[in-house]
Amino acid sequence: MIQRLHHTLRHHSRWIMLLFIILLGLGLIIGLSVGSVPLGFDSVVSILWHWLIGASLAQFPSSTVSILVTIRLPRVLLVALTGAALSTSGAAYQGLFRNPLADPYIIGVASGAGLGAMVAVIAGPVRTFGAIAMPVGAFVGAIGVVFAVTLAARRQGEPRTQDIVLAGVAIGTLASALTTFLMIRAGRQAGQLLAFLLGSASSVGWQAVQIVSVGLVIGMACLLYVARDMNALLLSEEQATMLGIDVKRVRLLIVFGATVMTACAVAFHGLIGFVGIIVPHALRLVFGGDNRSLIPYAACVGAFFLLAADILARTIQAPIEIPLGIVTACIGSPIFLFLLLRRNRSQ
Questions:
Q1: pLDDT digits (tens, 9 = 90+) for 48-89
Q2: What's the farthest any 2 CA atoms get from each other in the chain?
Q3: For residue 62, which phi and psi values (nearest 5 degrees)?
Q4: Would you report the helix, strand and coil content of the chain in percent, each value rounded to 5?
Q5: Cα–Cα distance measured from residue 164 to residue 151, given in angstroms and rounded to the nearest whole number
Q6: pLDDT higher for 193 or 32?
Q7: Is residue 125 packed enough to be buried (19+ CB in 10 Å), middle (13-18) or exposed (0-12)?
Q8: Per residue in 279-296, is it b (16+ CB within 10 Å) or e — as a string?
Q9: Residue 250 lies in a domain
Q10: 1 pLDDT tier (thresholds 50, 70, 90)
Q11: Separation of alpha carbons 152 and 107, rounded Å
Q12: ω into residue 319 within 30 of 0, thus cis?
C-alpha cells in the first residue's frame, strides 16, 4: 500500500512541487504582513510587485516601504533560506548515513560552524571585515570539524560511516563546550551571543541574504548532481560500489554540499535544531526516499516550516520576540519523540 502511494506521488512530482512553491509563497507573504506594525496582504503584494519590476514606490507611504523592503523582506527571506538549507542538509545526511533521524548536527557540523562564527565575533574579524567574516568563520569551523571527524574515524583505508557518526558526536560535543566557554568569557557580549546561539533573527540585512543564497545554490547543486547515486547508497556502500558508483566521490560531494549550507545557515541564525530532522523525515515517510525529488521538496517545506516558526516567535509574546531556536525546539521535540516511538513500535 505504501509503495503504491509512493509510486503514485512520484508520477505527480511536478504538481506536488508546484503546490509546495505556492505554499511557500503564501508563507512569505504572511511573514511580511505580520509584525509590530501589521500590513495588509494587498499592500504587501502591491509594494513587492512594484519593487520587483523596478517601478516607482512614491504612491506608497515611505514608512510602509521602509518597514517592508528594508527590515522585513531580508529577514523573511533569510529565515526561508535557512530553513531550506537545514532541511536539505538533513535529507542529505539521512541518505548518507542511512538513518531517517539524522540531521546536520550528527557529525558536529553545526557545532563546528557555531564555534567558528563565535570566534569570528569575539576575535574581531566581524568588526574589521563586516558580515562576511561570520560565514567564513562558520565554514572554517564546520570544515575543521569534518576534517577532524574524518581523521578520528579513519582506521585502515576509508573511514566507515558508523565510525564517522561516533567521532562526530564526540567532536561536536567538544565544539559545543568550547563555544559555551567563549560565550562565558565574552563579558558584556554574552547576552548577544546567547541570543545568536538560540537562533536570533532580529538583525539581518541584504548581505546576509546574498551569502546564504550563494551557499544554498552551491549545496543544492552538489546534492542534486549526486542525487541518483545517493539512492544507491541507501542499500549499502558495498552494493553501490558493485553498481559502479564512486562512493568516495559521492560521499565527499554530499558532505561538502551539506556543510556549505549548514555553515551559512548557522553563521547568521545560530544553532536551530529539529528542522533538519523533522521535515526530511516526514517527507521521506510520505513521498519515499528518491533523493531526486526529496531534496527539492525538503528545500521548499523546510523554508515554510521555519517561516511558520518565525511567525510564532514574533507573535506569541509580542512585542517581545522569542529566539527562533526555542520555538523550533518546542515544536520539534514532541514530533521527534512521536516519530521515534512510532519507529520503535514498527520494528
A1: 888 888 888 888 888 888 888 888 888 899 999 999 999 999
A2: 69
A3: -60, -35
A4: 80, 0, 20
A5: 9
A6: 32
A7: middle
A8: bbbbbbeebbbbbebbbb
A9: yes
A10: very low
A11: 12
A12: yes
Stated as kind and residue range, the H or E segment containing 346 is: helix 324-346
Query: Residue 229 falls within a domain, yes or no?
Result: yes
**DSSP secondary structure of 47-93:** HHHHHHTT---TTS-HHHHIIIIIIIHHHHHHHHHHHHHHHHHHHHH
**228 in a structural domain:** yes
pLDDT > 50? residue 153: yes
CA dist list (Å): 26 to 31, 218, 306: 9, 26, 13
Dihedral sign from CA coordinates of 49, 213, 263, 268:
negative
State the cell numbers at 91: 535529507
Residue 321's CATH number: 1.10.3470.10
- pLDDT for 224 equals 92
Domain count, the chain: 1
State which residues form the domain around 264: 74-346
Asked whether the beta carbons of 206 and 73 are under 8 A apart, the reply is no
Please enumerate, as own/partner, the contacts of 10-17 that have beta carbons within 8 Å and a separation of 24 or more.
10/287, 10/288, 10/290, 10/293, 13/293, 16/287, 16/293, 16/297, 17/293, 17/296, 17/297, 17/300
What is d(CA 297, CA 284) in angstroms, rounded to the nearest whole number? 10
Q: Is 175 exposed, middle or buried (0-12, 13-18, 19+ CB in 10 A)?
A: buried
Please identify which residue in the block is written with the cell numbers 565527499: 252
CB 131 within 8 A of CB 192: no
Q: Nine-digit cell at 136?
A: 567564513
- CA torsion angle 324 330 334 335 (round to 10): -20
CA–CA gap between residue 202 and residue 324 (Å, rounded): 10
Distance between CA atoms of 347 and 191, rounded to whole angstroms?
A: 44
Residue 11 located in a structural domain: no
